[in-house]
Amino acid sequence: MDFLISSAYQIEGGWDADGKGPSIWDNFTHTPGNIKNDETGDIACDSYNKADEDLYLLRALRVNSYRFSLSWPRIFPDGRNRSINTYGVNYYNRLIDGLLAQNITPMVTLFHWDLPQALQDIGGWLNPEMVELFDSYADFCFHTFGDRVKFWITFNEPIAISSLGYDLAVFPPNYKDDPGYALYKVTHIILKAHARAYHTYDQKYRATQKGVVSLSLNMDWVEPEPLNDPRNVEAADRYLQFMGGWFAHPIFKNGDYPDAMKWKVGNRSELQKLPSSRLPVFTEEEKEYIRGTADVFCLNYYTAKLIKHKTTKLRPFSYEDDQEKVLENDSSWPTSAIDNMRAVPWGLRRLLNWIKEEYGNPPIYITENGVGLKSKSEVDDTSKIFFYKTHIDEVLKAYNLDGVNLKGYVAWSFLDSFEWLNGYEARFGLHQVDFEKPSRPRTPRTSAIYYSEIIRQNGIPFHQGDSLSLFHLLASRTS
Ligand code: NOJ
User: Fold this and answer.
1) Is the beta carbon of 139 within 6 A of some atom in ligand 1?
2) Which helix (H) or strand (E) holds 467?
3) Angle between the N-to-C axes of helices 345-358 and 382-400, in degrees from 0 to 180, rounded to the nearest 10
4) Over the Cα atoms of the chain, what is R_g?
5) What is the pLDDT along the chain (479 residues), one digit of tens a residue?
6) How far is the CA of 269 from the centre of ligand 1 (A)?
7) 212 in helix, strand or coil?
8) Which residues are catalytic?
9) Which residue lies with its CA nearest to atom 2 of ligand 1?
10) How many Å apart are CA 400 and CA 473, to the nearest integer?
11) Contact (CB, 8 A) for 284 and 202
């Protein structure tokens, strides 16, 4: 299976069109100084008004699935289902129907960070009521779109919400109070909200709709440096537990946080002379409720880092200090354009193997993988082609040689789009978008042609006409 992907706030625009309510990202980007060049998602790729063109481009690429997200405040302007906005609902109905008419399977994310402002006003993800409110939104979406949508992702990269929103405080709501506590409380609530929506699907929709439900977790690979010191290997494992295991261990293992996290945060809390651990505790009933609430494992992968064991200081109560320290990246690894992220294809193979071992060989979808380039005019993007070729090659090795139970691969992304704090600077699209022109024209990059060739040949194209059959193999395993 081959896919393409986008997310609502990053491409739709129409930020206040047809009764849509404001999200925390609308308000955040409207405040000068928050985003590079003060850019906003007000218009973005204007996909709210250009669904037909997007569908045409998707068809030209011959993808068989498209992952996108729903904007919660476009559907419920004030976050609650007393405020249903039929224009918003119809926009998604048209998009879903348009995809199906072209045999493209929709893969839908319920929450890709654009929380209705009205729900932030009652405390956002720190408020336990959010479990109920998210469930009511998810229930509405399953009920309304689930006759046609068979793949649901509840949360995209939830660590970005807790860590970037409530610890580093660079994402809205930029919450700085309660450092070292808030992010753990937020994750605790998100895990319950995810589980609740999963059970709703199970109880009310699964029998008739027959879909799958999961969440997308982002993980970096970490390579111990030097490798021959077992403390570095342990530090690397702890890092993976803090980044992915925080969510995956409760869901895919035993309903509870990883031991490494419980030990580390608990121990540090004790040294800080706190009455109890800053990491909250699940009751036995809650553990039982959360365990097993994902049908497949969804991974977003971008980069790898080196890691070395290090004793952290006990100053402020922060997640950063609970977490392992990463070293400078290996300078021999090529950089991608944004944030000096290194492109490390073999890290993806190792990470897939780690997930296979850690969680008992679950079916895995890579729900994001891609690279952002700086040059906006570059249509002939050899480096992006190189990125996809080398990463897909490592995915093939994981599948063919290591027996990883891989079910699908998603390229991030379909279009250049609003790249959060980086504004429009990082260009992830297989299609270039000209954000200076009001009509936001799209131009396929060479990488789009390359990707469609991968799809056409069911694998990486070779000059001799031979091909490695990633998608063919995946398709045959899935069917
Ligand atoms: C993570 C996010 O899910 C997506 O919104 C973002 O654009 C990409 N990775 C690239 O940074």
Assistant:
1) no
2) strand 467-468
3) 30
4) 21
5) 556 778 999 999 999 999 999 999 999 999 999 999 999 999 999 999 999 999 999 999 999 999 999 999 999 999 999 999 999 999 999 999 999 999 999 999 999 999 999 999 999 999 999 999 999 999 999 999 999 999 999 999 999 999 999 999 999 999 999 999 999 999 999 999 999 999 999 999 999 999 999 999 999 999 998 899 999 999 999 999 999 999 999 999 999 999 999 999 999 999 989 999 999 999 999 999 999 999 999 999 999 999 988 766 655 556 667 777 676 566 666 666 556 688 999 999 999 999 999 999 999 999 999 999 887 668 989 989 999 999 999 999 999 999 999 999 999 999 999 999 999 999 999 999 999 999 999 999 999 999 999 888 766 776 544 444 444 444 444 33
6) 32
7) strand
8) 368
9) 157
10) 9
11) no
Residue 336 beta carbon below 6 angstroms from any ligand 1 atom:
no
Q: Is 156 in the pocket of ligand 1 (CB under 6 A)?
A: yes
137 CA → ligand 1 middle, Å:
23
Q: Could you identify the atom of ligand 1 that is nearest to the CA of residue 7? A: 5
Beta-bridge mates of residue 213: 152
Ligand 1 contact, 419 CB (< 6 A): yes
Q: Is 434 helix (H, G, I), strand (E, B) or coil?
A: coil
* Residue 393 CB neighbour total at 10 angstroms: 16
- List, in order, residues 6 or more apart from 437 with CB less than 8 Å away: none
pTM given for the model? 0.94
Domain positions in the chain are 2-478
Q: Which fold has domain 2-478?
A: TIM Barrel (3.20.20)
C-alpha to C-alpha distances, 263 to 174, 178, 277, 317, nearest whole angstrom: 28, 21, 9, 15
H/E run at residue 432: strand 431-433
Nearest CA owner, ligand 1 atom 11: 419
Q: What is the DSSP string of 11-64?
A: H---TTGGGPPPBHHHHHHTSTTSSGGG--SSSTT-TTT-HHHHHHHHHHHT-S
Report the atom number in ligand 1 closest to the C-alpha of 156.
3
Atom 6 of ligand 1 has which residue's CA nearest to it? Answer: 419
Name residue, tokens 């006759």.
147
Using alpha carbons only, give the angle 48, 113, 384 rounded to the nearest 5 degrees: 75
Tell me, using a 6 A CB cutoff, whether residue 412 lines ligand 1: yes
* 54 in contact with ligand 1, CB cutoff 6 A: no
CA 112 to ligand 1 center in whole angstroms: 9
Atom of ligand 1 minimally distant from the CA of 417:
7
Q: Per this entry, what is the length of the chain?
A: 479
Per-residue DSSP letters for 404-428?
--EEEEEES-SB----GGGTT-SB-
Joined together, the tokens standing for residue 115 give 């929380």
